[in-house]
Amino acid sequence: MAWYQNLFFNLVKFPTRWLVKTSNIPTDIEGELGIDKSRPIIYLLKTNSVTDRVALELSTKMLGLPAPDKQLEIGNDKITNCLFLQEPEALLSKKSKHTDINKSFTRLFELHRDDESLDLQIVPVSIFWGRAPGKESRGWADLLTDRASPNWLRKFFIVLFLGRDNFVYYSSAVSSQRMATTRGTDSEIAHKLIRLARTHFYRRQQSMNGPMLMDRHQLFNSILAAPSVKKAMAQEAKNSPAQLHKARQNAKSYIEEIAADYREGVIRLGDRLLGRVWNKIYNGIEVKNADKVRELAQNGHEIIYVPCHRSHMDYLLLTYVIYHEGLVTPHIAAGINLNFWPVGGLFRRGGAFFIRRSFAGNKLYTAVFREYLEQLFNKGYSVKFYAEGGRSRTGRLLPPKTGMLAMTIQAMMKGVKRPVSIVPVYIGYEHVMEVKSYLKELRGKNKEKESFLGVFSAIRKLKNYGYGFLNFGEPIHLGQYLDNNAPQWREAQGSIEDKKPSWLNPTVNVLSHNILERINQASAVSGMGLASLCLLAAEKRAMSKEELLQVMESYLGLLRQCPYSSQSSFPQVSAEKLLENTLRLDKFNVTEDSFGEIISIERDNAILLTYYRNNILHMFCVPGLIAAIIIAHNECHRDEVSSIVSRIFPLLKKELFIYMKEAEAEAYTQSLIDGMVQQGMLQSNDGVLTPADTSSVQFYSLWLLKSVIQETLQRYALVLNQLEQLGTTARGALEKRSRQVAERMSTLHGISAPEFYDKNVLATFIAAAREYEIWESNDEGLLLHSEKSKELQQLLFTLVSPEFVKRLQQIK
Questions:
Q1: Does the global pTM surpass 0.85?
Q2: Where do the domains of the chain lie, and which CATH numbers do they carry?
Q3: Average pLDDT, the chain
Q4: According to the model, what pLDDT value does residue 143 have?
Q5: For the residues 434-440, what does the mean pLDDT come to?
Q6: H/E stretch holding 654
Q7: CA distance 283 to 572
């Protein structure tokens, strides 16, 4: 860099630094991109801009990377470590001049001929000021900011207005040594690298800012002109011109009701407000597996986010995380109940589109909504909807609602040009602000209608909520999935017929369960979830602090040795630190006597805390089942343990959306047995397993694990017992009778979990038992107690407490 350029850079740098706030993507440069901070780096930027270099300097300092104003000494040559593809536009021209980068790279590859050991990391870096997508109709503000390589005057206004929204996006390093070994002359290799870089920067721009926003007037005309919508209008009009005009007006009103009105300014404002809110109420937001989603976006995939639904906070948290992970914020399917003043308008400008709970009987609304969804996909917008339909009131995943998923596949059948990938998302909290209202609803109170006063009341109550967790699950490439599971789908591509093909419903049903399994596969264990799991399993829901710490440390050790999946996460801190953070949330009673501290749960609070326990119950059900088997039999060969687990596992898989297939579950069971032996919970002698000594702390950990799964096993035993008593019965009658008995048993045994008698949970078990032929059906569809169900019932009776079995058999 010449002395005068260096002087100008330093003059501009100091005032610019006061205006700029930089966010780095990704934050884990070494782990995600494999960049070695100790080795020489050449930064490759698109435009030779002083303000871009200031942003890069701030970023590299934050990340501990080499500064971008250094010169690398290679032999007798000195090479600057920051290169640019092009110069900014001239003040009175829209043209950008190319730099002498071709010459710089050619010289670099010449130096490789002299020193074959030379290897520099060429790191492409994209600098973004704001995240505004292009517009088909531009306003006056776009005249200042809408340029790929703006001149100095435009850049002044960009930094002035968007300096606080600066993103420095790093890409994987290119090895100069590897490039030097490719075919061609040094000049040809340099030209190839530059061409690849230009393509890379274009794709990065698309993946970061998203597609061009469609003008709303154009959107309306496009939807109204769609063949499927015109056909639905004609059917509603019944060949009457007057009625046709009315049908068209109805269609326009439906579009107004549904369509988002995305404004990038609202997203930026929301980012600032939410950043302050998260800092106030959360100790941190932990995010995992975002790199996989960024890779999909970079490769041009249409991304559909399908998260679990715990809270209204999900809408905000997921959008906030996606924004800060360098991805396009999605258009969000929101229930029409959220379209109330003034929140509805803000949500709509933040990308929300509104959907009715039911489309039944309204063919025109259905056609308009499907066409709108297809427009989103074809334009390249990412989309988010909830597989469960509504928020979970128990902390478990709800049975899937398949409407949005079916319409997504139908949109693909009409010819979406880009590859489509579904990204399951696990969202978890250490405090859910609606959890008390959930409990009231489970007790029979009507659901409160959303309103501005309700939102204001919730904001006033914001306080310390601990940690939030957001893990992206393993993506499902939808085209590939359909090719493998319904290859005939391609035959229907381009069709506008409303009639569903015969393969659609069964395919969607299987796919929806697969999505929920992948959500749970990416679960996060929190301090609140783990402490609740332990204390709810304890007698009287109380433990000494030393006992609780020992048990939590034992379970954390088991998770480290036998992780539930590679997508899941668990705390990396000690049990002592984890419990310390959890107690600050003020959910547990802490008392002290002459022997030390006692941590307990009040009965009313116990019901609330089952919500957090249920978030991770699926991760502990197999260890709990192993513990129940060993304690029940006192000694049992590991092959017998595995055999018993395999008989019950399909039911657990169906109810708790466990991702493992039977062979994976078998391997996981063996791994858990080894882990429990290493943790001292089990003893092994020539393959015979026995519990730890009853006086040891390890036995207490094993006993609590057994208690974790007890309510689930008791419910299974209860339903099987009712079928035996009823003899031949209809499915609905069995569900009703089982719920009545479950409510009584929960009172007699102090079971605090609302899902013990939840009709959805009972229905899921009854359906799973029928699917796996645990009981039989006669020609009239009535359920029959069979030999297989009797055997399972007797097995379950050995795994639950004798007192529970005795009381169960007394209820007639």
A1: yes
A2: 3-209 (no CATH), 262-521 (3.40.1130), 527-701 (no CATH), 710-810 (1.10.10)
A3: 88
A4: 47
A5: 78
A6: helix 638-656
A7: 15
